[in-house]
Design brief:
Number of strands: 5
Structural class: alpha+beta
Distance between the termini: 25 Å
Strand order of the largest sheet: 1-2-3-5-4
Helix content: 55-70%
Shape: elongated
Radius of gyration: 37 Å
Largest sheet: 5 strands, mixed
C-alpha cells in the first residue's frame, strides 16, 4: 500500500512539473504577441506538447527525450524564440534512468538542428540563427542537467546496493539463528526423547518376554517416541538446510491414519479426484494439518471416530478432517497453538482454513491450498 501511494505521489509530481513547464513555455511564447496564423498555432501546440510530455518521463525517458527535442526544434522553426526548458528536464530524466549514450546522441542532434530550425523560420540571418540557437539551449545548462541526472542515478544505485547489503546481512543472520536453534533443539530434546523411546521399547520387550499383555498405552508411547525421534531429526535437518531426507507430505498421511487407528481412534481416509503432483510446501502443509487435527482429536475431542478426506482438484488441494467428539456450536473450544500454527501455514500459501464445531456435533477442520499459486 505504501509503495502504491509513493507511485501515485510521484506520478502527481510529474504531472505538476509537466503542466508547470508547459504553462511557462506557453506564457513565454505568448509574450511575443504573435498573430494566430497556422504556423503560430502549430508552434503553440509544440510548446504545450513538449511540456506535457514530461509527465511520462519516469516511464519512458528516451521517448520523452526524443519528443521534447523534436518539439524544441519544431517551435524554433515556427519562429518562437523560446528556451528548450522541457528538453533540459528530459535530459535530466534520461540520464537519471541510465540512458547516457542515447542522451548524448540526441542532445548533439538537437544542438545541430536548432540553428537550421532558426534559419527555416525565415526571421533571422545565419549569425542571428546561431545566436538564437545558443540562447534556446545553452550548452552549460545542458551539461548541468546531464550531470544532475547522473549524480542522482549514482546516488540511487548506492542506495539500492546498501539495501541489498542489508538484506544479505539479514539473511545471513537468519541462517545463523536457524543453525543456533538446531543446535539448541538437538542438545535439549534429543536426549529426553531418546530416553522415552528406549524406556518404552524396553518395557514392551520385557512385557512380551514375560508373556504378559502389553498395554495399548505403552504401545502408543513407544510409537509416539519413534515418531518424535523421526520428526525431530527431520526438523533439525530442515533447519540445517540439509535436503538428504525428504519432508513429510501427502504420501505419509496414511501412516498418520494408521497410527491414530492403533491408538484407539477409528479413523478412515478417503481420497478423491485425479491424483497429481503438488508442490512440496503444499504437501507438507496438508500433512501438518492432518497431523495436528488428529492429535487434537486424540487429546481433546473425546471422539470415537474420525475421518480424513483429501480432494485433488485442478488448482486446489482440499483437506477435511471430521470427528464425532463432544464439541458443539454452543461450546466452541478456544483455539490453541496448534490451530494457530495450522492457520499460519495455510495462509502463508495463500489458502483458507476453517475450523469449527459441526452442527450435528463434533469438530471439522477444512483447508483449501492453491496448487498453482504455491508452485
Amino acid at each position: 500500500m505504501s509503495r502504491r501511494r509513493l507511485r501515485v505521489r510521484a506520478g502527481l509530481r510529474d504531472w505538476l512539473i509537466a503542466v508547470g513547464v508547459a504553462a511557462a513555455l506557453l506564457v513565454t511564447g505568448l509574450s511575443g504577441h504573435r498573430a494566430a496564423t497556422g504556423p503560430d498555432l502549430l508552434g503553440y501546440g509544440l510548446l504545450a506538447v513538449g511540456g506535457l510530455a514530461l509527465a511520462a518521463g519516469r516511464r519512458a525517458p528516451v521517448a520523452v527525450l526524443a519528443v521534447t527535442g523534436l518539439c524544441a526544434v519544431g517551435y524554433q522553426a515556427a519562429g518562437f524564440d523560446v528556451a528548450a526548458v522541457a528538453f533540459l528536464f528530459a535530459v535530466y530524466a534520461a540520464v537519471r534512468a541510465g540512458h547516457r549514450i542515447v542522451t548524448v546522441a540526441v542532445s548533439v542532434a538537437v544542438l545541430a538542428s536548432l540553428p537550421l530550425a532558426a534559419l527555416v523560420s525565415g526571421l533571422h540571418d545565419t549569425g542571428e540563427a546561431f545566436a538564437q540557437a545558443r540562447g534556446a539551449l545553452q550548452i552549460a545548462w545542458l551539461i548541468a542537467a546531464g550531470a544532475a541526472g547522473e549524480a542522482l542515478r549514482q546516488a540511487e544505485q548506492r542506495a539500492d546496493e546498501a539495501e541489498r547489503t542489508r538484506e544479505e546481512t539479514a539473511r545471513r543472520r537468519a541462517d545463523e539463528e536457524r543453525l543456533h536453534i538446531a543446535r539448541e533443539l538437538h542438545d535439549s530434546l534429543t536426549h529426553q526423547i531418546s530416553v522415552i523411546k528406549v524406556q518404552s521399547e524396553a518395557a514392551v520387550h520385557v512385557a512380551r518376554k514375560r508373556g504378559e499383555s502389553v498395554p495399548e498405552a505403552l504401545l502408543a508411547i513407544r510409537e509416539a517416541g519413534r515418531e518424535a525421534s523421526r520428526e525431530l531429526r527431520a526438523t533439525l535437518e530442515a533447519l540445517r538446510d540439509d535436503d538428504t531426507t525428504p519432508p513429510h507430505g501427502l504420501d505419509h498421511v496414511t501412516e498418520l491414519v494408521e497410527r491414530a487407528a492403533k491408538s484407539g481412534l477409528a479413523t478412515t481416509l478417503t481420497i478423491e479426484g485425479r491424483r497429481h503432483d503438488v508442490p512440496t510446501a503444499v504437501g507438507r502443509t496438508a500433512y501438518r494439518v492432518v497431523q495436528e487435527s488428529l492429535t487434537n482429536i486424540a487429546r481433546h475431542a473425546d471422539a470415537g471416530t474420525a475421518s480424513v478426506h483429501i480432494d485433488y482438484r485442478p488448482d486446489t488441494l482440499a483437506v477435511r478432517i471430521d470427528d464425532d467428539g463432544k464439541a458443539t456450536p454452543d461450546s466452541a473450544p478456544q483455539p490453541g497453538i496448534g490451530l494457530l500454527g495450522m492457520r499460519e501455514r495455510v495462509t502463508a500459501l495463500g489458502g483458507r482454513l476453517r475450523a469449527e464445531p459441526r452442527s450435528g456435533g463434533g469438530f471439522t477442520v477444512q483447508a483449501e491450498l492453491p496448487v498453482e499459486r504455491a508452485s
